[in-house]
Each structure stands twice: as C-alpha cells, then as structure tokens.
Amino acid sequence: MAEDSKKGLVTALELGPVALFFVGYLLLRDRTFTVLGQEYTGFILMTALFIPILIVSMALIRRITGHLSKMQVMTLVLVVVFGGLTVWLNDERFFKMKPTLIYLIFGVILLVGLLRGQSYLRMLMEGMVPLDDTGWMILTRRFCAFFFALAVANELVWRLMSTDAWVNFKTFGLTGAIFVFFIFQGKLFQEHGTGEGD
C-alpha cells in the first residue's frame, strides 16, 4: 500500500468512530430503547456501539502500521473503561468525563517530564515531529498547558450545558481546537525543525 494511501486510511480509521458516534447520536438522541428490561437513551446505546467500533478501528490501525502509539492505547483503555461504566451503570456522565481524564493524564505526564527537565511528548509522539531539543521542550510546555485547558473546557461544557452541546463540542470543538493549536505551532516547527522528516 502506498504511503499516502496508508496515512489516509489511518486518519479515516481514527476519525471514523467519532463521526459514527455523532451521526448515530443525532439519529437516536430522542429515542429510548429497552434491553433486558432496562431502558437506555440513544446516547447510552451509541456509547455501547462506540466501544467495539473503536476496538476494531484500533486493531485495523495496528494491522496497517504495525503498532499503536502510547496515546492511542491509553485513549482506547479509557474509552473501554468509562464507556463500559456508562453502559453498565446507565449513566452518561462517565462517558462525558472521559475526555477530561484523558487530557488530565496527558497534561500531568508532560508536567512530570518538564519538572524533570525532559520532554515526554517526544516519547508520546514517537518521532512524528522532527524537532531539536529546545523545540521539543517548548512544544511540550505548550501541549501541557493546552491539555489542561481542554480538560477544564470539557468539564465546563458537560456540567453546564446540554448533552447535544457536549456531543457537538466533543465532535467539532475539541477536534477543531487541536487543529488550530497545531496551525499556531508553524513558526516553532520552522525555527526548531531538524528536517529529519523530509
């Protein structure tokens, strides 16, 4: 498989489960389902479907690339745990908390590294971004602050706003924020890039 095709397929597999969750939620949000005598909302049902879809997606990514990043593995574990709790306890709050926990974990990991004078981001990203040592430390500080900001934002949205608002925020807001964050790192990549990715 050509490298560009492989990257495109991996991106589709990463974004696909979130897109399917969003579409499924829109279709089922106003419906209630009875399973084994227990009533579930469309949100809970889509959470239950999201877990195996994400597992299959990650398995395919691993098959295509030969590995999963630490970030992908951690995200998968938290989705299974918190998604499972959401379905088991029939309480959507657990799934809504998941992004907060993911961003807090990543933020704390990066902060510990920074306090030790190291860039743990380099290990998490597994060399995807060719930067010199100074560049990695700057990017790590920025990512650390960004992850904590996303955790706070997710908490505010799910606690203060409707489920519809949270699903839109999770699907578009968080994804858009990450995209914009990377755009604003362009100058850093230019000044501290090593050219190893060329």
From TrEMBL:
Bilayer topology term: Multi-pass membrane protein
Cellular localization per UniProt: Cell inner membrane
A Pfam cross-reference name: IspA
Domain of life: Bacteria
Keywords carried by this UniProt record: Cell inner membrane, Cell membrane, Membrane, Transmembrane, Transmembrane helix
Keyword Cell inner membrane: yes
TM region(s), chain numbering: 9-28, 40-61, 73-89, 101-121, 142-161, 167-184
Chief place where the protein resides: membrane
One CC-aspect GO term: plasma membrane
InterPro entries xref list: YciB
Protein family according to the UniProt entry: Belongs to the YciB family.
Function: Plays a role in cell envelope biogenesis, maintenance of cell envelope integrity and membrane homeostasis.
Protein name: Inner membrane-spanning protein YciB
Native species: Palleronia pelagia
